[in-house]
Amino acid sequence: MSELTIETASVFEPLLHPARYKGAFGGRGSAKSHFFAGLLVEENIRRKVDCVCLREVQKSLKFSVKKLIETKIEDMGAGKYFEVQENQIISKRGGVTIFQGMQNHTADSIKSLEAFDIAWFEEAQTASQKSLDLLRPTMRKEGSEIWFSWNPDTKDDPIDQLLRGGNLPPGAVVVEANFKDNPWFPEVLKAEMEYDRGRDYDKYCHIWMGEYKKNSEARVFKNWKIEEFERPDGTIFRLGADWGFSVDPSTMVRCSVDGNRLYVDYEAYMVGCEIVNLPDLFDRVPESSKWFCRADSARPETISHMQKNGYPKMQAAQKGSGSIDEGIQFLQSFDIVVHPRCVHTIDELKTYCYKIDPMTEEVLPILADKNNHIIDALRYACEGIRKAKTFKRTIIPEIKRPYVGATSWMGN
N or C: which end of the chain has fewer CB within 10 A? Predict the structure, then answer.
């Protein structure tokens, strides 16, 4: 038989060697499934092997990897080595590849796989503990291998406990693969990935970087994205500052408003900054001494120091009962656009959360007092326009206004 050349992403090289367990986990677009489908075709070309392709639930073949394997056979120009049938694929070497759902198996029915050489479990994050306990001792032929490909969901999933825990089973080789490891990452997926990275960073980390799913319902901010931009001449900038205490950072943030968009383009951030060094720290924000800045009123002596050292327009923020919740709600009303250089702003928007009930894991309507130093500065920066959204009216008795409609009044 003539030779075939197969291109393989470098990240999968450890999986090309014999191993009892082979695992590849990571985000979408990493070509994990394409790698294992190609490897299965390769093994069938080299020798006689019987293979079973598994999912936890498989209601029909259209949900299996059969179509992907057929595509690989075609792409590799290996059609002469196979006979593709309706429910299985026969190799000219004499092996067979079948497709099944583990949920359909019992302790007795699984015995039909005892003589198989390879079991490939796709979408293994859905594998139940029962399925793994049935499969592992069933694959007992000398030199048999069990392959797993999966997009991680939670660290408590059975497959993650098996192949990402602290005690791997003997003969296990596991690699992490993400879109950055795929030399053939398609442009259409790149656009989807960039959208998620810019709009919902937790979603990006889970779907594209293969990180465990977070309790996204607890996140305070979901209304933001990362984007490079330059604000036009004439922009009114609003600045806020928060003071560090011991291990907490001193921060300054610059933002501006355009319609329903809140742009954050510069930040200053430092842990352990002495009061005498604060002006130099805040000077990292362009023209910061030129604009009005509202700062945490808990440190009036620090504000006074800053006013005497280059920041005469710095004022104390007006705190009060409910001011934190009101400020957060006001920020949530915008589409927030953050420049990529504002790395600490991005980190806090990702991690600032509501508290979670430790007994029920329900999200509580209580803001956690951490990961919020830039957020506090941003609240202070927007305090003026938040208060400008409301206004006071004086009611003067005995002044009549003509009635116009059911819900409106008109006067001089």
Answer: C
Domain of residue 45: give its range. Answer: 10-181
- Report how far residue 377's alpha carbon sits from residue 254's, in angstroms, rounded to the nearest whole number: 9
Query: Is residue 219 one of the residues assigned to a domain?
Result: no
pLDDT exceeds cutoff 80 at 202: no
Residue 189 in contact with residue 28, Cβ under 8 Å? Answer: yes
Could you say which DSSP state residue 85 is in?
-
Tens of pLDDT, residues 265-317: 999 999 999 999 999 999 999 999 999 999 999 999 999 999 999 999 999 99
End-to-end CA distance of the chain: 96
Both tokens of 28, joined, read 């979408």
Select from 143, 116, 122 the least CA-distant residue to 52: 116
Locate tokens 């609003």: which residue?
A: 238
Query: How many CB atoms neighbour CB 96 within 10 A?
Result: 17
Measuring CA to CA, which residue among 189, 216, 190, 220 is closest to residue 202?
A: 216
Distance of CA 38 to the CA centre of its chain: 29
The number of domains in the chain is 3
